[in-house]
Amino acid sequence: MSEQSKQSGTNAGGGPQPEPIRFFGTTWIGHDGGYGLRRAGVAAGALAAAVAGCLVLRFAYQGLAIADVGGFVNALVVVMFAICSAVAFRKTWEGFTRRPTGSATEDSLRSLKAIGFVGSLLAYFFRSLTEAPGEKLRREEYETARSQYEKRRGVRTGNPAARKGKGGKSKRK
Question: Which of 41, 69, 111, 164 has its Cα between 20 and 30 A from that of 25?
């Protein structure tokens, strides 16, 4: 497959191809190939990872308590993780419905999303309860690409000789 056809999501002979989703491949199209089990597995895995992350954060908080750094620092750490998790949840959730713009703002939020990894995992868990994360976005893009392909293909069908006048020249008004 050529580089251009990879970018546009088409192949040489069959039109646009669906974009695979992590952990699901292209099973999201027809909800086949163990799609339901994969969704359940992804949801359980994301929830288990979020719980494990919370346990790690609790150990870190206990380390601060043992170090006796003070109530202000303890409160600051809790608020910081809560805010970062909320931002990470929102940005991850938005990523399921629209493509990232690649702007400097997106890049600057990458560290906040890393700190608030629990929020990202929870967003992944909640989205997996209803669909494969990112399925709606990819389905809309795929259906748009299919309809555009069919429209372009429909314009080209027919006998090209029928559109030409005498002597092989095209008719012009």
Answer: 111
